[in-house]
Amino acid sequence: MSRSDLIPYGALLLRLALGALFLAHGLLKLLVHKPAGTAAYFRSLGLPGFVGYLTMAAELGGGSLLILGIATRLVALALVPLILGTIYMVHGSKGWLFTNKDGGWEFPAFWAVALVAQALLGSGAYSLGHALCIAWR
User: What is the dihedral of CA 85, 87, 92, 98, to 10 degrees?
Assistant: First the structure.
């Protein structure tokens, strides 16, 4: 049996963890690989370079919105295709385990499931979106 009074705090922890992961990945692209390097990497995958910029913006913006709890359900669902794209374009051919050379698809698959769970749960406790009455239900 679940403790329904704790569900908002579970959703909060999931939201903060997902937001932090997206911020970390976006900041890695922005500060370490630099935008031009990120675009070059995306071109090396056969994608247009601007997709690297869009991905960086989605990770930084989506991560920030998740942490703040603004439009959490919508943001979580919007980020699922980004993660599934990493499986299709990068990690899928590397095998299941993320410890494989160049990382398998184990972690991105779990990440996608966690995003769907977040979308189902909503923002949880301490959501700026709820406080400002701008939550997407």
Answer: 160
In a domain, 136, yes or no: no
User: How many structural domains compose the chain?
Assistant: 1
Domain residues for 34? 7-131
Q: What is the pLDDT along the chain (137 residues), one digit of tens a residue?
A: 679 999 999 999 999 999 999 999 999 999 999 999 999 999 999 999 999 999 999 999 999 999 999 999 999 999 999 999 999 999 889 989 888 888 889 999 999 999 999 999 999 999 998 888 876 65
In a domain, 51, yes or no: yes
Buried b (16+ CB within 10 A) or exposed e, 10-26: ebbebbeebbebbbebb
Q: What is the pTM of this model?
A: 0.92
What φ, ψ does residue 71 adopt, rounded to 5°?
A: 50, 45
**Is 96 inside a domain boundary?**
yes
Q: Which residues of 81-118 are buried (b: 16+ CB within 10 A; e: fewer)?
A: ebbbbbbeeebeebeeebeeeebbbbbbbebbebbeeb
- Answer yes or no: are the C-beta atoms of 22 and 57 closer than 8 Å: no
